[in-house]
Write a structure and sequence with these properties.
The longest helix is centred in the middle third of the chain and has 14 residues. With 201 residues, the chain is an alpha/beta fold. The chain is built from six helices and nine strands. It starts with 5 loop residues before the first strand and ends with a helix. α2 crosses α4.
């Protein structure tokens, strides 16, 4: 989509402690978890980058966290923003997606692109069935300086707390499917996802 001003970003730098191994390399059906996400977003953005320490993603730009120390998704967002600045890319927004939520509805992407053309806010999160999903986010590049300051000087780590401080607008995605935002954090979650995948085949 050449006409949009949004960089697609997959955040894949977590420790996966509850899962017991790096979720990026885990298979769901005939794809890895991150491939499920990439296949949904790759045709929607001019550029898609992955924030990860792994380097085995063909055809994608991989970047590391700009601040070392496993400081969480906020650093991943900041890293994507800094990549835009460093490479003089024209993007004014970053759209973030988790690597472990394979069943999300792609109309989220269309909503992100639509809201990127407004001047109503600087930060948007998706909400569905009364639950806010903080990693499905649209972040204005105008937030880069305050985000960096809050991470380094004010020790912000949790996306939810930082967003509430900044002020976040909501994009409601209503869907009757309760598994739409199934987040695979444990082996039991993966088993549940495998059942869903078979039902959808």
């Amino acid at each position: 989509m050449n006409e949009n001003n949004v960089l697609g970003v997959v955040l894949a730098g977590g420790k996966s402690q509850r899962f017991g191994q790096d979720k990026v390399e885990v298979n769901l059906g005939n794809k890895t978890l991150i491939e499920h996400t990439l296949d949904k977003i790759k045709f929607k953005f001019e550029d898609v980058i992955i924030v990860s320490k792994k380097t085995n993603f063909k055809n994608y730009k991989i970047i590391n966290d700009c601040i070392e120390g496993q400081l969480g998704p906020l650093v991943g967002v900041l890293s994507a923003m800094k990549w835009i600045k460093k490479n003089n890319k024209p993007y004014e927004w970053v759209a973030t997606f988790p690597c472990d939520t394979p069943f999300f509805n792609t109309k989220i992407i269309d909503e992100f692109i639509k809201f990127s053309k407004t001047k109503d806010g600087l930060l948007y999160f998706v909400k569905s069935n009364k639950i806010r999903h903080n990693i499905f986010g649209l972040w204005s590049l105008k937030l880069i300086e305050i985000l960096e300051k809050d991470i380094i000087k004010n020790n912000y780590r949790k996306v939810e707390k930082w967003a509430d401080k900044i002020g976040v607008r909501i994009i409601n995605i209503e869907d009757n499917k309760k598994d739409l935002f199934l987040n695979i954090n444990t082996k039991d979650d993966l088993i549940a996802a495998e059942r869903i995948l078979k039902q959808n085949d």
